[in-house]
Specification:
The chain is built from seven helices and 18 strands. The protein has about 290 residues and is an alpha/beta fold. It folds into two domains: about 180 residues, Metallo-dependent phosphatases (Purple Acid Phosphatase, chain A, domain 2); about 100 residues, no CATH class. A hairpin with a 6-residue loop joins strand 13 and strand 14. It is elongated. About 30% of the residues are buried. Bound molecules: zinc ion (ZN). Zinc ion binds next to helix 5. InterPro entries: Metallo-depent_PP-like (IPR029052).
Amino acid sequence: MADFFTAGWRLDPSRPKDSQGQERRQAVEHALARLSHADDLWVLGNAFKATVSVEDIGNILSCTTARCHLLRGEIDPVTPAHLDLWKTVDLASEVVVDGQLVVMSHYPMMSWWGAAGAPLEEQVSGGKSRKISMHVFGEGRGGFRGWWRAVSVDWSAQGGAFLSIDQVRRQSEDNLFATPWLEAYYPDRRRYRYCELCSGAIDCGRKDGGYHWDGDRLVTFRGALVLTRISPFPDRGMSGLATATGDICTECLGVALQYFDLQEGVHYRLAPAVTLQVIDRSEVHRVSLEGRA
Ligand SMILES: [Zn+2]
C-alpha cells in the first residue's frame, strides 16, 4: 500500500489528432495500470480538459484499481457526474504518509500546517528520524518544480511519472530554496540575496549564485571552489573583498581580481579549470562539475 502524487495530465481524448495528447494519454494509462488496488493516487488538478465526457474519464481511470482522489485545479470538469468518478474530491486536503504529514492542493501555498514549526521527531530502529510536514501542489507551468518542502508534482515537470513520497522528499532537497514566505524562518534557504560589497542583487538559483569565504577558500553558493587564499590580501582598494562575511557578486569578484593589487600565485591560487573568464561568466560551478566528471 502506497501513496502517489501527480497533476496536470491535461488529457482530452476527444482530440484524436493531437498526437502529443494521445502519447500523454498512453503514458498516463500505463502509469495507472502499474498501481495496485491498495494504492492511493492523489491527482492535484488539471487532469482532464473541461470538455471531456464522463465516459472518457471513466475509461481512463478504469485502467487502475487504485483509489484515485482529485484536488481540483482550474480546468477540471466539475459536474456531479464527473466528480462521482473520483474516490474523493477536495480543494485542499492532507494525508499522513510514512509518518509525514503531506498537505495537498492544486495551487502552491506559501505556508502550511507545520511548515515553519519544529521538525516532528520519531524513533525508528537504528536512530531518530526527523520528519517535517511537506506540501505538494499541482501547478507546474514552465517546468517549475517548486521549493524546498513544497514540491510540484506536475506530470510534465516531473518527466511523466507519478511521485512516491521518497521522490517528493528528494525533489524537495533538490529544490533547495524555501518559499518566499518561509525565508524568514530559513535564511540559509533564501534565493535572492544582496552583495555585501556593492548591494547588487544576487540570484543564488542561477549560475554560480554568488561567492563567499569558507576560511581561506572562496566558494560558489553551492560550494564549488573558486580560489584559495595563500597569503594575506593587501588592504588597498579591495573594497572589503578580503573581509567580506556575506555574499559577493560576480561583478565585484571579477573587478577585484582584475584591477586590484592581487596576484595569482602570490595572494591566491585559482581552482583547477577556473580562469578569470570563467569567473566573469559566473560558470565556476560548471567547470568544476566537468572537472569532477
Ligand atoms: Zn557586488
